[in-house]
């Protein structure tokens, strides 16, 4: 998301006015187009920051890089008054499938370490876990399985 787009558009409008003045004429059509684009962007940000109509839910994996990306996204969004409602931690290895499988046990232990980091870094943000399924998620039936884990339905 281009977070400084509004500022960029403001600068474009100012620069176009200065350029047009230096060249001896103002292209009102171009300026109006830029102003409308800026207004649309500002309205979108206003809508996204209104928690009565919008909610941001970020999805991450219990791994280092996704945690860093999530922290950066939360920070960037907060600069616009957009709060993150929840975190969905995806591809969590279910403990009931470990059954002495050393590989899965080690991966799950690594995930446990990152669960702690997620809890510490994103304290107060609702967290829901979605297990690693045995197939890709696509189609309505798969989405219903994910929904069951997210909403207990």
List the helices and strands and how they pair.
Elements: H1 5-23, H2 28-49, E1 56-60, H3 64-78, E2 84-92, H4 102-121, E3 126-131, H5 139-151
Parallel strand pairs: 1-2, 2-3
Helix pairs in contact: 1-2
How is this structure best described in words?
By secondary structure, the chain is α/β, with parallel strands linked by helices. The chain has 2 domains: 5-49, no CATH class; 56-151, P-loop containing nucleotide triphosphate hydrolases (Rossmann fold), CATH 3.40.50.300. It has 5 helices and 3 strands. Strands 1-2-3 form a 3-stranded parallel β-sheet, with helices on both faces. Helix 4 (102-121) links the parallel strand 2 and strand 3 (126-131). Helix 1 (5-23) runs antiparallel to helix 2 (28-49). The longest helix is centred in the N-terminal third of the chain and has 22 residues, at 28-49. The protein starts with a helix and ends with a helix. The mean pLDDT is 87.
How many structural units, i.e. domains?
A: 2
Shape summary: elongated
Q: How far is the first residue's CA from the last residue's CA?
A: 33 Å
Number of helices: 5
Could you state the oligomeric state of the chains shown? single chain
Quickly name the level 1 CATH class of the largest domain. Alpha Beta
Mean pLDDT: 87
> Structural class, please?
alpha/beta
Order of helices and strands: HHEHEHEH
The residue ranges in which pLDDT falls below 50 over 5 or more consecutive positions are none
């Amino acid at each position: 998301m281009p977070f400084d787009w509004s500022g960029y558009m403001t600068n474009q409008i100012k620069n176009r006015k200065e350029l047009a003045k230096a060249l001896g004429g103002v292209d009102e059509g171009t300026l109006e187009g830029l102003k409308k684009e800026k207004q649309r962007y500002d309205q979108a940000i206003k809508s996204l920051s209104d928690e009565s109509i919008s909610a941001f839910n970020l999805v991450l994996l219990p791994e280092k890089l996704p945690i860093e990306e999530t922290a950066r996204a939360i920070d960037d969004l907060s600069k616009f008054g957009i709060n993150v409602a929840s975190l969905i931690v995806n591809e969590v290895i279910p403990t009931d499938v470990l059954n002495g499988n050393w590989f899965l046990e080690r991966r799950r232990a690594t995930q446990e370490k990152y669960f702690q980091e997620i809890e510490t870094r994103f304290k107060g943000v609702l967290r829901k876990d979605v297990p690693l399924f045995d197939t890709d998620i696509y189609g309505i039936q798969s989405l219903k399985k994910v929904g069951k884990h997210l909403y207990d339905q």
